[in-house]
Amino acid sequence: MPIESDSVFEFPCRFPIKAMGRDAEGFPAHVMELVAASAGPIDHDDVQIKPSRDGRYISVTISFTATSREQLDTIYRSLTGSERVLVVL
Predict the structure, then answer these.
(1) Which among 74, 72, 80, 78 is positioned nearest to 15, based on CA atoms?
(2) What's the fold here for domain 13-88?
């Protein structure tokens, strides 16, 4: 769901986005590529990877400097448009 126009964000700002999917090889890199396409290079220090309790799923949280609502909407659409990404928060 895109961020509404009456957003409380002031840009630029640090913004964390989390994507969850099956724990398959390359999933973290896939998420990083999708975010980097709009946010620029991602520093590995800004990435948190956490497996689910049962090990079948994985979450990737990336914190980056968001520059506009449009940028966040583009990243959200890229992530939700990927068949590998099951949930975006």
Answers:
(1) 72
(2) Alpha-Beta Plaits (3.30.70)
Is the CA virtual torsion 60, 66, 69, 70 positive or negative? negative
Q: Is the pLDDT of residue 1 over 50?
A: no
The angle at the Cα of 19, spanning 15 to 24, to the nearest 5 degrees, equals: 145
Q: Is the peptide bond before 2 cis (omega within 30 degrees of 0)?
A: no
pLDDT, tens only, 17-52:
999 999 999 999 999 999 999 999 999 999 999 999
pLDDT (tens digit, 9 = 90+) per residue, 62-86? 999 999 999 999 999 999 999 999 9
Pair 75, 4: CB distance under 8 Å: no
Residues 4, 76 contacting (CB under 8 angstroms) = no
Q: Whose structure tokens read 């689910």?
A: 52
Cα separation, 31 vs 37, whole angstroms: 10
